[in-house]
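Lab notes, practical 5.
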Amino acid sequence: MIERVAKILAERTVGPSFGIPGGGPSLALIDIMTAAGRPFITTHFEGSAALMAGAVGRLSGAPGLAMAIKGPGFANMAAGLATCRLEALPVVAAVEAYGHDVGPIKQHKRLGHAGIADDVAKAHVSLAASTDEITLACASAGEETPGPVILELAETSTGKMDTPKKPSTNQTEFFRLLTQAKTPVVIAGTLAIRYGVGAALESLDIPVFTTAAAKGVVDERRVNAAGIFTGAGADLAPETQLMPGADLVVGIGLRAQELLSLDAITCQIISVEAVSPAAPNRYAALVSPGELTETFAALAGKSWGLDELVTAKANLANALLGAPFLPAHCFSALGARFGTGYRLVLDTGHFCTIGEHMTPVAAPDRYLSSAMGRSMGAALPLAIGGALHDAEIPTVLAIGDGGIGMFFSELRIAVAHRLPILVLFMRDGAFGSIRSAAKARGLNEAPLIIGQPSWRGAAEGIGLQSTAADDEQSFVDALREWRPADGPGLIEVGFPADPYRDMTSTLRS
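Output from the prediction step:
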């Protein structure tokens, strides 16, 4: 029976498998998979395994593979699977389970997997299903909208398969509005990555925004690349500068879950969509991805906003780089050191807001983040999974005080495999973004201060090269000294707490 599952997983997933092995069927599955040339990476936490597999899935386009034991092992993995569900990362999680023939007296490690799985998985099947049913479930991990699938390594009565609802489309109204528009903008979501329309977007003569999750689908060095749209931009954000002049938003998979808010869009919205959006009444018209060619043909004759966009981007860069040493200077230095020849992985925090706007990404496989769930700490295992999948280019992970500790032990994997990962630990000694909220509401900031915030000693203890930088020149020097071929390193960058807390006030409301 495990041989049957191994064959399906070999065909439907890619890359190494990740997890913490158990003594039951997962051990036999690992043995079969490794003998067939699919290595197993032992993680320190099951949630990390799901995230690493998710990174492989995001970069390859096919589901990654994670494994866990039943009960607490699966519960631990659920945290990572939840992030994969929020971020639309395709993963198959093979987990041990009690079969339906195991009576209720057997309670050791017993949890209701189905209840845990309901919100974090697209599909939930077991060995009781037919080969065709298991194959279909595993394949669904990569189908629109991608996400986790759980395969229980036992014959249970559990079964679930999400069936995405197709949108109600109106081609006539969609193309009427598109034809009449004089000053449209495009906002591309992750659907644009999955349908491979980056080149078509880059050919347009109108501003093209992306959601944060779709960063890189347009080469952000191009003149029409407007950067990210969140729906919560403050004065300096290009969206705030450009959107008042737009008479129509053309979405490519513009979904509410990829934005902070749709309310900031005051003109009409039309969108190309493969599944029914969460708020269908917010859209004037929808069409299916089958209309992408016609959509780009209609947009090809439009031209406006590029001069204004150049000015907006220059004003943003000048304002951020004209301030004292803060994360903007670090992201600028990364560009000077690597160009676009590296993969940027952003954790969540104030530095993430700066990095999203300041760092040009040339292609979607050069960027990873938890842009939809803003899951703090998740970027670290994402970076490791991404580097294991593709170690040909260096990976730069930017992470802050709040996120670095959650999965820190997984950096031992980076050391063991000599992965070309540079950790930029951006330290202000506090939960900087949450301090902003506390300040705005007049609340006590003391619980948000982190004592003894340095992680250099811990990094060196597990074998990472480590250095400190507290000004622009020392940071540039540290970047120059790190060589990806030597394996992972860490630069601990310290910033003054109050300027750090306030640095996004002109970017994000």
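Observations recorded by the TA: The chain has a mean pLDDT of 94. The chain has 20 helices and 19 strands.
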